[in-house]
Amino acid sequence: VRVVNTKGQQVVDTWAFNAADLNEFMSMEHSRVAIGRIIPGVGDRLVTNKRRPILTLIEDTSGGIHDTLFAACDRWRYELLGAQGYHDNCTDNLAAGMKALGLVPPETPAPLNLFMNIPVLDGNRVEARPPVSTPGSYVTLRAEMDCVIAFSACPQDMSRSTGRRCARPRRMSRCWINGDIHLPDRALAANSPSPQPSPRKRGEGVVWELP
Amino acid sequence: VRVVNTKGQQVVDTWAFNAADLNEFMSMEHSRVAIGRIIPGVGDRLVTNKRRPILTLIEDTSGGIHDTLFAACDRWRYELLGAQGYHDNCTDNLAAGMKALGLVPPETPAPLNLFMNIPVLDGNRVEARPPVSTPGSYVTLRAEMDCVIAFSACPQDMSRSTGRRCARPRRMSRCWINGDIHLPDRALAANSPSPQPSPRKRGEGVVWELP
């Protein structure tokens, strides 16, 4: 599946579950051990909590900066940031998207945050910075087992990356092995899929899956 | 609770669960966001998957090097490393220790690996190195809610840190707020508690809890 960062600045929380057993899923803490890095590069095989390959990063034109360190945002995160009332978040997006498929994720695993830029400074400090990905750049992931892949375009608009990560589309389905997903940036939009990858206004569809 | 690295080289996988709701537990991916670092320092409050403080690191004489990046070892890890037959591992230690308390952890959260030395090199590469902790050095954690704390002295003896992390004690109970736990190094020992903190041979008790 190819994930295209149409406008360049969208962060995409990504999960993958073994379709035959949702209790086996892509795990960042196991993947870091497997690949010996905190940021996967082309050729790296992300593994499950049973140490089996589930997704391989086979192409990356985005500058190669992604994150495996930060949890998916959730309602508690936005409450702490001062949000009034409910705020869309990636954790609920995962649950809702899975529910739409008739599935219940066993937990919210730490996600692969595509295009997210969290450098480790001085070997310890972490800092949220704007993505380095450019408009139209993309990442291609190859499934290594039959799996359910979930994406949530992060609706974070209250952190230090404010204004850079303000879209909130999501799209979930069984593995797209050959499909592309285009992710508009800065689009506040509803979650229904759309055949159009162009920028959206609030309430319009925001993701696009090629045949 | 104070965890004393009696001989200095033992890694200790550490978990904490809300005693009133095991589905809430200390989360490394949420804690990194909260503290802005990958290695907690004195004064840092580790948080749960609901972003609430659960443990605060209040003392650390070990050199301040711990790990939040690597998964607990498990049987698949040792299989990949070539282990013949079953190998003790921290994941099973957690489950067994919780079971002894009549509890079932909802999952195996990424652990706080006390004394484990996994530097991030060049902002990306991770490498297992021997602990920097010295004999008798310790870490003191303060519980911020009623919680179940689990420790597993890591039985890893097949990785690059071979010979440095070869004990396999474990000790689990409801929060020790005032207790000390002494962890012998290089002791291959059974898992029963012992009143003696001195080095152990295989089959002897390996951990010690002060009154």
What attributes characterize this protein structure?
disordered C terminus, 5-stranded antiparallel sheet, 12% helix, alpha+beta, 6-stranded mixed sheet, homodimer
Provide a quick synopsis of the model.
Chain A has 211 residues and is of the alpha+beta class.
Main sheet attributes: strand count, strand direction, barrel closure of chain A: 6 strands, mixed
Give the chain pair forming the largest contact, with residue counts: A-B, 33 and 33 residues
Number of strands of chain A: 13
Spatial ordering of strands, largest sheet of chain A: 4-5-9-1-12-13
Rg of chain A, rounded, reads 16 Å
> What is the rounded distance between the termini of chain A?
11 Å
Secondary-structure class of chain A: alpha+beta
Q: What layout of secondary structure does this protein have?
A:
2 copies of one chain form a homodimer.
Chain A: E1 2-5, E2 12-18, E3 21-25, H1 28-35, E4 45-47, E5 53-60, H2 75-80, H3 90-100, E6 112-114, E7 120-121, E8 125-126, E9 137-143, E10 147-153, E11 170-174, E12 180-182, E13 208-209
Parallel strand pairs in A: 1-12
Antiparallel strand pairs in A: 1-9, 2-3, 2-6, 2-10, 4-5, 5-9, 7-8, 10-11, 12-13
Structure description:
The structure is a homodimer of 211-residue chains. Chain A is of the alpha+beta class and 211 residues long. Helix content of chain A is 12%, strand content 27%. In chain A, the strands form 3 sheets. In chain A, strands 4-5-9-1-12-13 form a 6-stranded mixed sheet. In chain A, strands 2, 3, 6, 10 and 11 form a 5-stranded antiparallel sheet that branches. The N and C termini of chain A lie close together (11 Å). The A-B interface holds A 27-30, 32-33, 36-39, 49-52, 69-71, 74, 76-77, 80, 106-108, 110, 119-121, 123-127 and B 27-30, 32-33, 36-39, 49-52, 69-71, 74, 76-77, 80, 106-108, 110, 119-121, 123-127.
